[in-house]
Amino acid sequence: MKRMVLLFLLLFAYRVQAQDIVYEVKIGTASKYKKDPTPRLAMYLAFDLLFPDRYLPLPLFKLTGVKKMKVENPGDPSKSFVLVFNRRGQWTAMQTPNDTLRITYKDGAPDEFINHSGSFKKFQYSGDTVISLHNHKVDRYIRKGRIFHKVNKHADKLSQPITIYSNTNWDLPLTIHYKQHPDDDEMNIMTENFFNDGNGNLILDKTIYIKRSHLVFKMENGLPITLSTFKQRLSGAEKSVKESGEQPELLNFSYEYFEKEKKTK
User: Fold this and answer.
1) Which helix (H) or strand (E) holds 12?
2) What is the pLDDT of residues 106-140, one digit of tens each?
3) CA 177 – CA 185 distance, rounded (Å)
4) How many other C-beta atoms are found inside a 10 Å radius of the C-beta of residue 146?
5) Cα(26)–Cα(135) distance, rounded to whole angstroms?
6) Predicted TM-score (pTM) above 0.85
7) Which of 41, 65, 110, 246 is the most exposed, having the fewest neighbouring CB atoms within 10 Å of its CB?
8) Which secondary structure element, helix H or strand E, spans residue 42, and what is its range?
9) What is the 3-state secondary structure (H, E, C) of 159-199?
10) Whose CA is closest to 69, among 198, 176, 201, 222?
């Protein structure tokens, strides 16, 4: 009961401090919002929050029928992992050499996150909002289109971080700019560019001023089979590549699939 009261007060405070967002405060499970895509899309937010260094744009992959995505890092086997899915295309576990993290789903939406130490994170839902509970910390994410945007707690809008999307539906090309402050100059803006090149590869460029991580996903049937990451240095107003590492970091992908269910007459 105390947790519910605390959440209500926190959400009320967020509404006062973020007047540009209008929402209805109703704490509950996903069952109250079955017509809203927020719970269904929350599995992508869960992956990004739990594994911010993995750089896997899951919304751009065709995961229907995939049972396991095995990711091998030949240069550092300790960074290899297996992503497990259910028949609905939801990822349910991340297996690494040292641990297994599992997600429980409730009403089709991520509910609780569990590893060897027990439950450590929980999602709750409020309309188009996902509320993340972790170590007594409450974070709030608003869905706009198919992308979740963190709502900042800063009362002063002149100092709060800003994220700018070219679109919110994961339509390619997609550009995202991250600013810690609205008046940040070019040296402090992080930009992500997602696009397909002429060879059918999915490209993700993560750029801060003259430094870029150039990620090349070699795709086959809508799924990556390799990921090569190049470190680059840029020059000029056009951001042309001045230097590029000769040996990219390489990841190899392989898959297990569910057997097709037989139709009953």
Assistant:
1) helix 2-17
2) 888 899 999 888 777 899 988 888 999 888 888 89
3) 12
4) 15
5) 22
6) no
7) 246
8) helix 38-50
9) CCCEEEECCCCCCCCEEEEEECCCCCCHHHCEEEEEEECCC
10) 222
